[in-house]
Structure formats: C-alpha cells, structure tokens
Amino acid sequence: MKNFFASCPRGLEETLNQEATRFNFNHVEITRGGLNFKTTPLNAINFLLETRVASRVYKEIGSFDFRNEKDLAKNAMQIPWTKILNPDDTIKITSLFSREVMGKFKNSHYLSLLLKDAIVDTFVEKAGKRPSIDLDHPNFPLLLRIEPSPKKGELRGIVSVDLAGHSLHLRGYRASGHEAPIKENLAAALLMNTSWNKEVPLYDPFCGSGTFLLEGAMMRYQIAPTYIKLLNRKEGHYSFAFERQKWFQKDQAIKQPFENLCEELIARAKNGISNAGVGEFHGSDIVADPIGMLMEAWQTIGLPRKSLRINVINALDVQPDDNFSNGVLITNPPYGVRLEEKDEKLEKLYYDIGESLKNNWKGFNAYIISQEAIYRKKISLRTSMRMSFYNGSLECRLLGYELY
Ligand SMILES: C[S@@+](CC[C@H](N)C(=O)[O-])C[C@H]1O[C@@H](n2cnc3c(N)ncnc32)[C@H](O)[C@@H]1O
Questions:
Q1: d(CA 98, CA 147)
Q2: Alpha-carbon torsion (392, 219, 35, 257), positive or negative
Q3: Which domains does the chain have, with CATH numbers?
Q4: Ligand 1 centre from 333 Cα, in Å?
C-alpha cells in the first residue's frame, strides 16, 4: 500500500470523502482541500478514473526532513531519484506550504527550484543524462508539500507525483479554451449535496454551457467522468500522465487490470447511454450561444438528443413540463463581479427568482448557487439547506428550497 492525496475544491472535502467510501481506502484523513489515504496503486487509479469530485490525485514518492532552504536540496537527494525517474522524463515542480509553515519562506517557486537542483544533481552524479523541464505537458508533474516535521525545529518535504497530469475537472467534453463559469467537478459535487436521486428530471433555467446538466447526465447514465479520455486511449493516445511514469510502466501486474477497468467503464457508459429516456434534462438560458456549447458537449459524450430539452427563454418564465409533478432545479444565476455598490437589477432578479420558484415550481426541490449575501437575501423563501464552499477563491453558498 502507498500514500496518496486527492485534492478537491475547498468546502467539498466531506463530499469527496463520502464519494471515496466505496473504494475502502485505509488511514483516511480529511485535510483542508482534500484527502490523505493509503491504498494500492491500482485502487488509486480506479478512484482517479471514477471520481467526480477530486481535482487531482497524487501518489507519494518520498519525503525528507530539512531545517532551512540551504539544506533542502542536499536532503532531497536522499530520495532515490534515479530509480524513480528515467533520464528522458520531463518534470515540472509545484510547491505548496501547509498553513503552519506559511510565512517561513519567501516564495514557493524558489523551493521548486531547489528541488529541481536536487534531482538534476543526483542524475548528473549517477547517470550523466538528466530529466528536462516541461512546464506544459510533463509526464512527471511533481508536487512538493512542506509541513512541520515531527522532529523539533525541522520541516518535512513530501514529494508526490500527479497521476493524471491535468486537473480532473477537464472531462474532455468541451473544446480546450472553453472554461465553464463553474468547474465540472464542483458542479458534480454540488449536485451530490442536493436531494436529486438521479431518477427525477433535472432543470437548470440559467444553464449557460450546461455544466450541471452534463454532470447530472453522466451521473444518471453511469458515465465515468474520464469516459472521453478512456475513449481517446483507444485511439492510441496517452490520456493520463501515469501511463508514462516509470512506476506504472515497471509494474507488470497493474497493466492488464488497468486495461480491464478501462474496458469495463466504457461498457458501463455505453449501456447507460443506451438506456437514456426522454426529457430527463432541461436547460434554458436567455442567450442562445452557451446553449450551443451544451449541445456540442452533449453530442461529444454521445448522449441522445431526446434526453435533453432546451429552450432560449427568460428563466422567470420557465415552468416545469406538465408531465412531471416533481423534480430538481439547480442553477447558478448571474452574480456579477464583486461590486462596491450593489446592482439593483440583480437585486430585482433574485427577488423575482424567489417569486417564480414559489409560483411555478410547486413540488420541486430547488437549489441556487449564490455568491453575494446582498442578492440571496432577496429570495423570500425559507431555506431547507445551506452549504458553504469555494469557487476558486470566492466563498459561495448552495441554498436549498423545498417548494410546496
Ligand atoms: C453564471 S452563468 C451560468 C453558468 C452555467 N452554470 C454553466 O455551466 O455555464 C449565468 C447564466 O445566466 C444567463 N442569464 C442571465 N439572465 C438570465 C435570465 N433572465 N434568464 C435566463 N438566463 C439568464 C446568462 O446568459 C448566463 O449564461
């Protein structure tokens, strides 16, 4: 068993922990921004392929204690780098400090440079040729975390490798460069905190590029979040950095089970897609363009057109389909940017959202993502749940309403 760390959007650590339950990890520890756990590399890869909440999954490769910047590089050479890396590997190093250590160092970039020196010096001494730096597509992206050491007066450097090599919110259903206002793993994690049981229709009347609907469809039809990446692998591409990492390539016992797992997840998704029903997802927006992005992504996943209803319409005029007396609505209405002065139009919009929920959505559970207290207070409905989380550095709330 090895040590792993999975990161996630802040505020959703408990959701990640719940999602991880079925993987039976050992020594699970919830930390700020993620989970530490122990498991086998194959089980960690299985988790990486199936987690909808994690941003990245890291495998620990070594650690060392040090007192100051000066002896960081020297002590980091205790890690057997030439066994871990190939000389033709490409690396990138990111450094992070735990909260207790913050302020002890000028900047994290300098620590990354020191670790790079340690790696390079080890290779020059022992192998002649050395790994090179690639800031865009390294096959060996490293994370150096600095924490207090149990040894008095010392710090501990923990070095891990990023297994996917990209943030897992990038599902592959959007062309690169099209970032949704809400990250895919955050949207999935928020959906998991609602009462949606995947069996009733899901509505988003401010759907934009449709992240909630796309994530909901992947959940309902049992499509792994890495499904598109798994399909790309079949075309002969490497989809995950670990496929090009020495530890994985050396381990003959892991390769076939990994291939089987990929096949299993593809088969499960195809089966889920073939069972999709009519009108199970409803998206609308006042602007047509983002809805075009939703439809493109829907097609990229291979979801049937019949399961999605779309409309260009003011959210305040949307009513649920007559055939359904209940369902779930989840949406993030416009929130503006942090304003010095409140925006009266937005205040009115939030008031109207409350009124429309009351009048048009009886029998539904509605969930609103809100960033600014001044606007959410305009919704004159009692909340049935509220949860705080971070979208990047912005503190937001998920507010639930049961509508009778
Ligand atoms: C914060 S974005 C939603 C982003 C979305 N969750 C996504 O995944 O792309 C808000 C959306 O509300 C839409 N919008 C603004 N006013 C609206 C209104 N009155 N009715 C419907 N949509 C509206 C905007 O066009 C925008 O796409």
A1: 5
A2: negative
A3: 56-162 (3.30.2130.30), 184-221+277-402 (3.40.50.150)
A4: 5
**What are the pLDDT tens digits along the chain (404 aa)?**
999 999 999 999 999 999 999 999 999 999 989 999 999 999 999 999 999 999 999 999 999 999 988 889 889 999 999 999 999 999 999 999 888 877 788 788 999 999 999 999 899 887 778 899 999 999 999 999 999 999 888 999 999 999 999 999 999 999 876 677 899 999 999 999 999 999 999 999 999 999 999 999 999 999 999 999 999 998 888 899 999 999 999 998 999 999 999 999 999 999 999 999 999 999 999 999 999 999 999 999 999 999 999 999 999 999 998 776 789 999 999 987 655 556 888 999 999 999 999 999 999 999 999 988 889 999 999 999 999 999 988 899 999 999 98
Residue nearest to atom 15 of ligand 1 (CA): 334
Distance CA(118)–CA(72), nearest Å, equals 8
Q: Are the C-beta atoms of 30 and 13 separated by less than 8 Å?
A: yes
Q: Is the CB of 369 under 6 A from ligand 1?
A: no
Mutate to test the pocket of ligand 1, among 171, 285, 329 (most ligand atoms within 8 A of CB): 285
Q: How far, in Å, from the CA of 209 to the mean position of ligand 1? A: 8
Q: 334 CB under 6 A from ligand 1?
A: yes
* φ, ψ for residue 2, nearest 5 deg: -120, 165
- Closest approach atom of ligand 1 to CA 290: 27
181 lines ligand 1 (CB under 6 A): yes
Please indicate whether residue 209, judged by its CB atom, sits closer than 6 Å to ligand 1: yes
Which residue reads 């939703």 in tokens?
Answer: 294
